[in-house]
Task: structure prediction
Amino acid sequence: MNTPDITTVVERLYARTSSGDLKWEQTEQEGVYQTSFPNYSIRLSEEYPVEAGDEPMDYWIRIYNSDGMLVTSFCDRDVFEDFKKKGSNAYHVMRKMYIMSRDQSMGVTRALNDILDCLSDGDAQ
Result:
């Protein structure tokens, strides 16, 4: 696994997610979000670590080809050192990206705006 390439993929996914250029969607699995490219799909998930304890969640990226076969997978721990060398934190970057993908695919902004409209109009029940 070439971690500099993986680190670059994470950085670019994060940047495009932050800018709203990537469209994330829900998958058939709860808590797993997907964005697609012409020949590949990327799934982002939040999972308990294998060695459960007081460890924080792991954030996983899985890349699938157009046939639905898993090409590669990695989590924030796999790129931790590369991010650290750049003065960044892989866990925080991937966690923020997960939250943004979840919020986008679940329509959080729309839901909050609808609720705020109801509250400001006195329509709340």
